[in-house]
Amino acid sequence: MHIISCHNNTDFDALASMVAASFIYPEALRILPTQLQPGVQEFVSVHWDILRLQSRKGLDLSHVRQLTVTDTANWERLDNMKTLAGQKDLRTIVWDHHPGRGSIEASELHQEETGAAVTLLLEEMKARDCAFSPVHATLFLLGIYDDTGSLSFPSTTARDVHMAGFMLENGADLHVVAAYQDSALDDRHMALFQRMLGEAQTISLGSLKIGISSLEVEKGLTMLPSVVHQFKDIQGLDAAFGIFPMGPEKMAIIARSSARELDLGAMMRRLGGGGHPGAGSAILKGSLEIVHQQVLECIHSTKVDEASVRHLMTPVPVLLSAGNSVRQAADILKKTGKTALPVVDDENSFLGTFSEKTIASIRQDRQWEQRVTAMLNRDVPSVAPDDTLRHALLLMSRSETGLLPVILKGKLAGEITRASIILNMYSF
Fold first, then answer.
1. Cβ–Cβ < 8 Å for 398, 381
2. Each residue of 269-296: b (16+ CB within 10 Å) or e?
3. GO molecular function of the protein, one example (predicted)?
4. Best exposed site among 172, 237, 286, 404 by fewest CB in 10 Å?
5. Where would I find the beta strands (DSSP E) of 91-238?
6. How far apart are CA 42 and CA 37, in angstroms?
7. Domain-by-domain residue ranges, the chain?
8. Which H or E run includes 31?
């Protein structure tokens, strides 16, 4: 067995490198470490299926004959894999961009000082003419940006820049990249950030959560856009507006958004400023209170056209009946290749789901002849047809099956899958 893995406390460069390596070694399993950085955890929860990842938990290392490691050259940084170090017939391949020798005695070593490890693998993919999707291009660009500070760190090389451009040529989505990026703040900016967290106003625009903060600030703060951006991210907001005095009766408005439903550039133009859909700014005359009210009015007058579950829901192809036995339900699961199926009664009322996980929990023969309703998972996240796709995506992280039942007045109306939401996100 050939596996690919990366270091624990996985960042975007490590994840991107591991996925890129799977294009070079398509026979290998992609083993994700247990500990992930928060942004990576969020990304993985949405993209798990399309990235074809497998958890480190439950992996039997005794069957591993080849190991490919990305973004590290040290056994100590891997997730409980040091037992492989003593395996004499193990072939190891290392792809790393960190200088210095690691503890892994690699059979094949690819080690060069680039800003991001994924750059090395992307160059190899390009040389082999590997085909990949815009989703993969987006992850690869995230990996480059994560380790190069969006190509601004001194460690950034021309090779990183070339590969970043290559990802954009192949459909990388900068909206998604921006949503998962972060920036460090110094003490003065962090103090402002803490004040914003405590004093900001949060309002709703449809299903969107928008934060507004109007604060007096000291002179010399040059990272106000980053403060607003981080305020948006930490608070889990779809958009954030910061209003800061720039002089007597002169206010700067800085806006950031990760919601495609909002066009901040258009909103700021209505206030005399400008920008693009994800970021905008304006300078207004007036007191802090007056400008705050003007921004509120601008937000409330903005029309938001949100896509709903109804647009992407599909009929459920296979159902289980409340009258089915556990044995019958297990046979149907096996024949359909599904990991879980919804269960309904004679009136099509949704009762819950029956899954492979339930089958694995069976310990007594008599359980096979019970009604499937005796072993249902009733705590199943569900959506209604008029719920927004944003709401469905939020619930999807709680779904073990990659789909959500769509319920209308207690009846099963259809289903929506993780794949369909992803395809909609990337405008496929």
1. yes
2. eebebebebbbbbbebeeeeeebbebbe
3. nucleotide binding
4. 286
5. 91-96, 108-111, 201-205, 208-214
6. 9
7. 2-179, 187-300, 310-425
8. strand 29-32
Token pair recorded at residue 41: 């955890």
Residue with tokens 């004499």: 88
| Rounded Cα distance, 240 and 19, in Å | 33
CATH of domain 187-300: 3.10.310.30
Residue owning tokens 């192809």: 317
Are the CB atoms for 140 and 117 separated by under 8 Å? no
Interatomic CA distance for residues 298 and 303, integer angstroms: 10
**Superfamily of domain 2-179 in the CATH hierarchy:** inorganic pyrophosphatase (n-terminal core) (3.90.1640.10)
Tokens of 188: 């003065």
Q: Which residue has the tokens 């490590």?
A: 14
Nearest to 396 by CA among 376, 419, 425: 419
pLDDT above 90 (res 130)? yes
pTM of model > 0.70:
no
Q: Residue 255 is encoded by which pair of tokens?
A: 């806006």
- Per-residue tokens: 302: 């903005």
Closest C-alpha to 385, from 424, 403, 412: 412
**What pLDDT sits at residue 321?**
95
Q: Which residue is associated with the tokens 């319920």?
A: 407
Q: For the CA atoms of the chain, what is the radius of gyration? A: 25
pLDDT of 77 higher than 90: no
Nearest to 211 by CA among 201, 220, 221: 201
Output phi, psi for 96, to 5 deg: -145, 150
pLDDT in tens, 359-401: 999 999 999 999 999 999 998 999 999 998 888 988 987 777 7
**Type of residue found at 174:** L
Decide: 353 and 380 in contact? Cβ < 8 Å. yes
Mean pLDDT of 23-46: 91
* Two structure tokens written together for 338: 């599904």
DSSP structure class, residue 404:
E
> What are the tens digits of pLDDT across the range 246-276?
888 999 999 998 887 888 888 988 998 876 6
Architecture of domain 310-425: Roll (3.10)
Using CA atoms, how far apart are residues 66 and 25, in angstroms rounded to an integer?
11
CB 256 within 8 A of CB 279: yes
